[in-house]
């Protein structure tokens, strides 16, 4: 293996930074147990001209996953957990839609992305109200698209679950476990778990994005506290050098062993084959996924790595065991392949290979994708049929709920439908009829949603393509919030008659309207909209109260129209 020409490497890194319009980056390289490069390039705050240093904090995103796996490896070392025992042994209430997966899913399955579940990321993304326990419980309603161990499918939810299991096992938070078992022993004192904490530091980077127009703009910070075990760590290259030394050193740094060599080998070894389809370049081919690490064949050499992408930041941690060399690239640019370009540049030199024009290649990919995305959006817009909504906008407004994805709220503002989904910066653009496009602005995403109606042409739900590998997710419309107010419900209490037939409506101690018909028996009224209620247990049953002025004057049911009896 070859020693790096550090001066030339630094020059090349800065050139690639400019090629990819990255405002700032920091890079560390360790070789044979020594830090040979640890420095910053460009700016962490372009407006203020503040430079990147080797202590500048960046989000590392999904590179966090290897930290989660290493903490779990220490629990395997201690006999508290096993890689291959069903998770239900530790979480008796763990439940998935697939009963086979429920009974047999192991920690190794979870950490190597072979659970059978696709990503379902919008279950958690942006939601600040959930706890990790809530996410684990919602797994029970999320549809799989494959069987257990059938296909490698990246899944952050399984890492949230693994973090929750860590917390139950140790009786402390996942964050405390990572700090006590990894960060503190390694001296990673600048590393944290929240972008709020990062922003308190005098040396932190702002997040940026390159728009399809080529403009580079600031992005808001994205808090990932809920999904911490999958991607919340923020660090600097000075700290990340210690992480590289641990992994290159087989679990030991400076004579201190944090995790057994055997447990670390399990993490670094392939547990699941990864699809080879779709790769762009013959020089890089996936071998498989370990636990928190991808294993590649790079031009005939074994390289482990894991990237991280989160709003405004891209990171890559990579090491070559036989070369005893590792590199970390942290950037303040959303989804930039500059990180791979720098890593490949390092590996070409370390392995003594002819350098390849990775920057030129991958910049071409970026520009093609930006152009293609713009053209595809224009094409979709051209396919929209010039048909107006089938209902007044006010009839679409309401709360829609899915047991896994939570609440999707729709209001009308300035003659437009406005969504509120997990607090994301989003808007709705009408396509045609009852179909809108949910635009998540800063992610440049468009997700189609369609409002649905019942037999009475009332909007009673919406479907959304939030996970493209399963059927559209249906959100059920919720009753008007006012109909949960006992004072409002009390207006409907009374007796109603139609000739010799009668219906008596009462309000029970639980705030539920109860109807009693003669003849017929009792039934529970379920709030719906306005003055209309459903009949529990009878999907087609409906009761409507008619109001005249401020008084309820009659009850309309399938059996007929009942006039209200005026008391006294």
Could you describe the 3D structure shown?
With 568 residues, the chain is an alpha+beta fold. It has three domains: 6-371, Beta-lactamase, CATH 3.40.710.10; 393-478, Lipocalin (Beta Barrel); 482-564, Lipocalin, CATH 2.40.128. The protein contains 14 helices and 30 strands. The strands form six sheets. It has an eight-stranded antiparallel beta sheet with strand order 3-2-1-14-13-12-11-10, sandwiched between helices. It has an eight-stranded antiparallel beta sheet with strand order 17-16-15-22-21-20-19-18, with no helix packed on it. α1 packs antiparallel against α12 and α2 crosses α7 (174-186). The longest helix is centred in the middle third of the chain and has 26 residues, at 358-383. The mean pLDDT is 95.
The major pleated sheet works out as: 8 strands, antiparallel
The H-level CATH homologous superfamily of the largest domain, spelled out, is DD-peptidase/beta-lactamase superfamily
Please report the number of helical segments: 14
Query: What is the helix content?
Result: 25-40%
| Quantity of strands, as a count | 30
Runs in which pLDDT lies below 50 for 5 or more consecutive residues are none
CATH class placement of the largest domain: Alpha Beta
Beginning-to-end CA distance, first to last residue: 100 Å
Structure class: alpha+beta
Query: Averaged pLDDT, please?
Result: 95
Examine the secondary-structure arrangement and name the CATH architecture of the largest domain.
Answer: 3-Layer(aba) Sandwich
User: What Rg, in angstroms, do the CA atoms define?
Assistant: 29 Å
β-sheet strand percentage: 25-35%
Give the CATH topology of the largest domain.
Answer: Beta-lactamase
User: What number of structural domains do the residues give?
Assistant: 3
With strands numbered from the N-terminus, the spatial order across the biggest sheet is 3-2-1-14-13-12-11-10
Shape: elongated
